[in-house]
Amino acid sequence: MIQFELPSLGSDMDQGKLLVWHVKPGDQVKRGQVVAVVDTSKAAVDVEIWQDGVVAELLVQPGETVPVGTVLATLLEPGEIQTPVETPIIKPTVTKRHAVSPSARKRAHELGINPDVLNGTGAQGSVTLADVESAAHIAVSLVAPADTAQARQSDMRKAIAAAMSRSKREIPHYYLSETISMAAARAWLQQHNENLPITARILPIVLQIKAVAIALQKLPQFNGYYREGEFHPVSVVNAGVAISLRSGGLVAPALMDVSAKSLEQLMVELTDLVKRARAGSLRSSEMSEPGITITNLGEMGVESVFGVIYPPQVALVGFGRITERPWIVNKELHSVPLMTATLAADHRVSDGHQGALFLAELRDLLQIPERLSDTQVKGESA
Amino acid sequence: MKPDRQTVINATFDILRSIAPEIKVDAIDLSKKLRQQIDLDSMDWLNFLLGLHKRFSVDIPEADYGRLLCMNDVVNYIQEKIA
């Protein structure tokens, strides 16, 4: 029996509201299939299933809001036969009663909460006033629907605040920056785009994202997750792309397997990702699987951006505006399009030396843009 | 058939609205830079040009991007291309 749980769609999500099921009991499902739509504080997300199977029972109904990790449905594994269990499952009752402080009991009564079922954090597991207050808070947030645009806005602000506070509390950030000539990249793009229809033209950000992915092959300590006291590197580069939403706030869904894809394909996928992020129809894998985030605030005219790492990731690459500046090439003064690339990285996983190697690799890769257009480039610089 | 000025403006506003639903097109100054008045990133800009391309069947080479700064530029460009 497979238990299909509500996945965490990013570190800033702790609950979700089931909007719709795309499957019913008896349906055969395939790994990667979208089976449900769940509303997070940021967007409605298409939730994919990660195993083949047959839907047995849907345990959460549309409209219900449940915490991350809640079993949404049960599925039979391929080959598994549903045993005709007719005996109702008896839910375990709470037998162990914790001590409840008088003030907690009084407050619980006022709030209409049963204090005997709460997990106590006081001495010997006793339920304290704070436990009751926090239970009440969770109960309120679980029933409060984000139905209006304003409520969603405020929910998103809270979600971002929670994730970024956690980042600044837990991650010892260090920051590096490097000025990179974009002359070669710009010339290559101009030539590449010159005779192409609008639909096929590539934006500089695509070259930058690809360069990050290739550099990560050489320096994998910036791609992955820090969980339970250790770093878990990821071999595939799923690059989270920070996308600002028109109504305010942002999401950073992943472009999947960037290093294996051509620039043309990445451009198509990025266009689609931005469109879907803004329309609020992202897939769960895109929300939960980026191993690094890339942000490009150059669009808005800033020179550089030093990002806040999105936990449990361990690095964030920022790109500033590409702008013509005086630059010395071979002892001569030239006007060159320059861009500042920055790295914010987690000191628990890497040091500034490796960070510097990463930015240097990124810089070198952007000097040979034609190599970024191959689908299988190796992370070696000339 | 060359579309008149108002037709091009209206169509352009429709495209802008589809990209940035929150904008108020009445507030757009036709002679001021578009991207300074409304928040369009390069992806939005590309989609804007794509919208013009689809609506008016004009091709807009990348080299011409620099000519399309304000709404008046866009209207003149489209009319010139169709004429």
Task: Give the helices and strands, then pairings.
The complex is a heterodimer of chains A (382) and B (83).
Chain A: E1 2-5, E2 15-21, E3 28-29, E4 34-39, E5 44-48, E6 53-58, E7 65-67, E8 71-76, H1 102-111, H2 129-143, H3 149-170, E9 173-181, H4 183-194, H5 204-218, E10 224-227, E11 230-233, E12 239-241, E13 243-244, E14 250-251, E15 254-255, H6 263-279, E16 282-283, H7 284-288, E17 292-296, E18 315-319, E19 323-329, E20 332-346, H8 352-367, H9 369-372
Chain B: H1 5-19, H2 34-37, H3 42-56, H4 71-82
Helix pairs in contact in B: 1-3, 1-4
**Residue share in helices of chain A?**
25-40%
The number of distinct helices of chain A, counting runs of at least 4 residues, comes to 9
SSE string of chain B: HHHH
pLDDT averaged over residues of chain A: 84
Number of strands of chain A: 20
What does the radius of gyration of chain B come to?
12 Å
β-strand percent of chain B reads: under 5%
Measure the end-to-end span of chain B: 7 Å
Tell me about this structure.
The complex is a heterodimer of chains A (about 375) and B (about 80). With about 375 residues, chain A is of the alpha+beta class. In chain A, about 30% of the residues lie in helices and about 25% in strands. Chain A contains nine helices and 20 strands. In chain A, the strands form five sheets. In chain A, strands 9, 12, 15, 17, 18, 19 and 20 form a seven-stranded mixed sheet that branches. In chain A, strands 7-2-4-5-16 form a five-stranded mixed sheet. In chain A, helix 1 runs parallel beside helix 2 and helix 5 (about 205-220) crosses helix 8. The longest helix of chain A is centred in the middle third of the chain and has 22 residues, at about 150-170. The radius of gyration of chain A is 25 Å and the shape is globular. Chain B has about 80 residues and is mostly helical. The termini of chain B are close together. Chain B has helices at about 5-20, 35, 40-55, 70-80. In chain B, helix 1 (about 5-20) packs across helix 3 (about 40-55). The longest helix of chain B has 15 residues, at about 5-20.
